[in-house]
Amino acid sequence: MQLNEYPTAIAKLQAEVFDLDLLIEQTHATVKQIEAEIDSAIAFDQGLKNDAQRKARRQQLLDEHPSYWEQQQFLTQHRVKRESYFIQLCLKRNEFSVLKLEKREAIARLELQNSQ
User: How do the domains of the chain map onto residue ranges?
Assistant: First the structure.
């Protein structure tokens, strides 16, 4: 990759990380909404007498919810993918820095040769 190609590659990776951050945020909000609905249902359930019953009922409702675990799985997948892109982004930034340093070193050597 040429030095002038790095800013575009870095920007693309940053955009991917940003898009995944949005997906993670949206999915997390969906999960929290499901949990809030279940917690609300439990709060108004007069048949639940203690914390142990409420916790058991909460877990049962989460297990039975049609999309709760699917959303949890999406959340995990998005987080894994985001970390992968973030690692690639860091690598590109580091490669870009090294390449710039190498170019500066080459320029300094040329200037040194020309001054002698």
Answer: 3-115
**In the block, which residue shows the tokens 């690639």?**
88
Report CA 15 to chain centroid distance, whole Å. Answer: 12
Question: From CA 50, how far away is CA 96, in angstroms rounded?
Answer: 59
Which two three-digit tokens encode residue 103? 């170019």
Residue 54 φ/ψ, nearest 5 degrees: -65, -45
For residue range 51-106, what is the model confidence (pLDDT) as tens digits? 999 999 999 999 999 999 999 999 999 999 999 999 999 999 999 999 999 999 99
Pair 57, 48: CB distance under 8 Å: yes
* Tokens, residue 22: 């949005």
Between vectors from CA 87 to CA 17 and to CA 21, what angle results, nearest 5°? 20
pTM of this prediction? 0.82
Q: Is 67 helix (H, G, I), strand (E, B) or coil?
A: coil
